[in-house]
Specification:
The protein is built from 15 helices and 23 strands. A hairpin with a 4-residue loop joins strand 3 and strand 4. The protein is 29% helix and 19% strand.
Length: 508
């Protein structure tokens, strides 16, 4: 990282732009680049270090982030007013950078909950899931009965009772991508190791019938997996009373769970970024990538997602694919998204968001190159559909939208028992049943929102701390949180309203 007296950050010798470390006024001499600014360069925005002709590629990270839409003089502000995305060829070079993983000799351990089926949890919740939006209120009323008074006072090993409700389940086709996404998500949560028990609540007449889900995924009812419908139970009050009684019966068994030392190989980490800025790809994302590499070397699993936010960086992942089939599967998902956005009247460059742009990100290509850094450097061992159970260790990819709550919902359904979320603008987010650590990309935001942020990665720019050092700190904190130490979002009780299954298809 640059010395603290430098005004800009250069990410590669071949780049024709650099990133400002502070607001630069017109006429400021940037000595390290031997260029004077010709206009205001906002903090974390890009400065042209030489003239860039109209149509020429704009390069950052030694990668193409867009093309000049006008002649850009040296010293100018490079952003949405003079840069746009256009098609260009990517060399996927499948598997050319795949390498054997250097596993550590003595893997770390954490204190987790070992379930009867061999899976391992980092938390011990009882969950209430809904098959349809029509049963959401009843599910919340059941959970509310355990949020006040002493209902959980006698069960110190239960982290809570949480209702995870959603807005779909009916008025939809009973086949196709949308239906499959919802069923995979509900199945993934129903079997998630961070839940000691599950109550599933339906209305009774919905498209997404509980019995269809149980049959499709071979789920068996039992003392810690109960189901009910409002229509069969006699309406709202009788359903709430019945549900509360069922949860009370689960609590005694759920409270028997005890943490025990277990290998870190049982951790599955969801890698996420949101409310990003230009520092995301410089500090927090590569640091999370370093932590991801450590987790994989200890035998664990890390899930990269948000397919629209690796668009333009997918060629860096295919080079690390463990096999050509894995690489091709990733490209198939990219092509699906191109077609999906087109038929819905959008385009892949609808992203970045207004907040991302205010933070200095200009195109989806630039955002993706920074976002992909969360994935570290390990081989890409698998590519999975949204909410599909991850059955491969190491670094993997799960297809999802870039919308953070929706993407993380899929990652948790796929098996993530812990989450890391990087943010530059300041996202307030938490997750149940999987704890979520928030990593700040810059010190200014961390200081302003220190009660929400768990780790400051801005020290890489401010104090010259190395990415590997910050990555180790993230990895160490992951073990503490997985062992029961609460994250900042957990202290606020976040996570009840962040369950957002990806809805695809017509609402009928």
């Amino acid at each position: 990282m640059p010395a603290s007296n430098l005004l800009t950050i250069r990410l590669h010798p071949s780049d024709n732009v650099v990133v400002s470390r502070a607001e630069l006024l017109p006429g400021t001499m940037v000595g390290e680049e031997d260029v004077a600014t010709v206009e205001v360069i906002p903090t974390s925005h890009k400065l042209a270090v030489r003239s860039i002709a109209k149509g020429e590629a704009v390069r950052k990270y030694n990668q193409i982030i867009g093309f000049a839409t006008a002649d850009i003089p040296a010293g100018a502000h490079v952003h949405v007013q003079n840069v746009a995305v256009q098609d260009f060829e990517r060399d996927y070079a499948f598997c050319t950078e795949a390498r054997d993983t250097a596993f550590v000799a003595k893997p770390a351990s954490f204190m987790g909950y070992k379930r009867a089926n061999g899976t391992v949890g980092t938390r011990n919740y009882i969950g209430i899931l809904t098959s349809v939006n029509c049963s959401a209120t009843v599910a919340r009323y059941i959970a509310d009965a355990f949020k006040h008074g002493n209902e959980l006072g006698g069960y110190p090993n239960v982290d809570g009772v949480v209702a995870l409700v959603h807005g779909t389940g009916c008025g939809m086709a009973d086949s196709g991508d949308g239906y499959a996404n919802l069923q995979r998500t509900l199945w993934g949560y129903a079997r998630h190791p961070n839940f000691a028990g599950i109550l599933m609540v339906g209305l009774g007449c919905e498209v997404n019938q509980i019995d269809f889900l149980l049959e499709a995924y071979n789920i068996t009812r039992g003392p810690l997996f109960r189901t009910m419908t409002i229509q069969d139970s006699g309406g709202t009050k009788r359903s709430v009373d019945k549900g509360v009684a069922m949860i009370r019966e689960m609590l005694t068994e759920a409270d028997k769970a005890r943490r025990e030392p277990l290998p870190v190989s049982h951790l599955t980490l969801a890698l996420q970024c949101g409310g990003s800025d230009a520092y995301s790809g410089i500090t927090a994302n590569p640091s999370l990538g370093a932590a991801s590499d450590l987790l994989v070397r200890h035998g664990g699993t890390a899930i990269l997602s948000e397919t629209p936010e690796i668009y333009g960086a997918e060629h860096l992942l295919t080079r690390r694919a463990a096999s050509p089939a894995v690489g091709e599967k990733l490209i198939e998902r990219i092509r699906w998204w191109e077609e999906y956005t087109k038929r819905n009247g959008g385009e892949m460059n609808n992203n970045p968001s207004p907040g991302n742009k205010a933070g200095g990100l200009t195109t989806i290509l630039e955002k993706s190159l920074g976002a992909a850094a969360k994935g570290g450097t390990m081989n890409l061992n698998g590519v999975f559909r949204y909410g599909e159970a991850i059955n491969t260790k190491g670094f993997v990819f799960m297809d999802s939208p870039g919308y953070d709550p929706c993407s993380i919902t899929g990652q948790v359904a796929s098996g993530a028992n812990i989450v890391c979320f990087t943010t530059g603008r300041g996202s307030v987010y938490g997750c149940k049943p999987s704890p979520c650590l928030k990593l700040a990309t810059n010190t200014t935001m961390f200081d302003r929102m220190d009660q929400d942020m768990d780790i400051n990665c801005g020290t890489i720019v401010d104090a010259g701390e190395s990415i590997d050092t910050v990555g180790q700190r993230i990895f160490d904190r992951l073990i503490e949180v997985a062992s029961g130490d609460p994250t900042k979002s957990e202290t606020y009780g976040f996570g009840d309203d962040e369950f957002v299954p990806w809805q695809i298809g017509a609402v009928m």
